[in-house]
Amino acid sequence: MPDEHAAAITEKTLDDYRANAEAFREGTRDHDVSQNIDALLRHIQGEPPFRILDLGCGPGRDLKAFTARGHVAVGLDGAEPFVHMARRESGCEVLHQDFLCLDLPAETFDGVFANAVLFHLPSREINGVLSKLHAALRNGGVLFSSNPRGSNQEGWSGPRYGTWYDWPTWRDLLLSAGFIELEHYYRPAGLPREQQPWLASVWRKA
After folding, report:
1. What whole-number distance in Å separates Cα of residue 127 and Cα of residue 118?
2. pLDDT band at 2 (very low <50, low <70, confident <90, very high)
3. End-to-end CA distance of the chain
4. DSSP string, the chain
5. I want to staple 60 with a disulfide (CB 3.0 to 4.6 A). Which of 40, 89, 140, 144 is the partner?
6. pLDDT in the model for residue 41
7. Cα(178)–Cα(197) distance, rounded to whole angstroms?
8. What residue intervals traverse the membrane (predicted)?
9. Residues 71-121: pLDDT tens digits?
10. How many Å apart are CA 169 and CA 174, to the nearest integer?
11. pLDDT tens-digit readout, 13-65
């Protein structure tokens, strides 16, 4: 179980998303993350349709994108307004779970899509969450993650908590959780590195 301090941090961050759910939906509705979706799907082995867990699915934008491509998408979010929005807008199954208390079936998903979400965890909790995602993937399954990059600083950014990993630290965390590196890149594409605040990476369950 997470410690009380970590749980309080997570709850405060979720409270901000709950309070601003409508504004978040409108502000992110047209964000193009097709590069990230493509990165996940091209590494999944086997015959589609694939079963994809959209971790931190928010209002359901990417659930609809995976479904439109013919896959079976399952959402998960800790903020109740997002769970309701995602179910209504996507028609997909959406789990209401706190990341610190994930309860996922073992070896069920071909892919996990963790877009702009894992960085909200306190750094001392990331190993446990990565282990649970590893266990939820089928053998050879693929994890995609995208986080704002930094120099491993950690703390509050307004009412939301974050940890801004650099690539070597993030890579070591994923390798220690039993993943094999497939690729990584910075976003948005086509800009100088100093204008690419997002670090995206793709991993296979060993």
Report:
1. 11
2. low
3. 26
4. ---HHHHHHHHHHHHHHHHTHHHHHHHHTT---HHHHHHHHHH--SSSPPEEEEET-TTSHHHHHHHHTT-EEEEEES-HHHHHHHHHHH-SEEEE--GGG----TT-EEEEEEES-GGGS-GGGHHHHHHHHHHHEEEEEEEEEEEE--SSEEEEETTEEEEE--HHHHHHHHHHTTEEEEEEEEESTTS-GGG--EEEEEEEE-
5. 89
6. 98
7. 26
8. none
9. 999 999 999 999 999 999 999 999 999 999 999 999 999 999 999 999 999
10. 9
11. 999 999 999 998 988 988 889 999 999 999 999 999 999 999 999 999 999 99
Place of tokens 């990331």: 126
Residue ranges of domains in the chain, CATH in brackets: 4-205 (3.40.50.150)
Please write down the HEC assignment for all residues of 96-128.
ECCHHHCCCCCCCEEEEEEECCHHHCCHHHHHH
- The residue whose two tokens read 């908590």 is 161
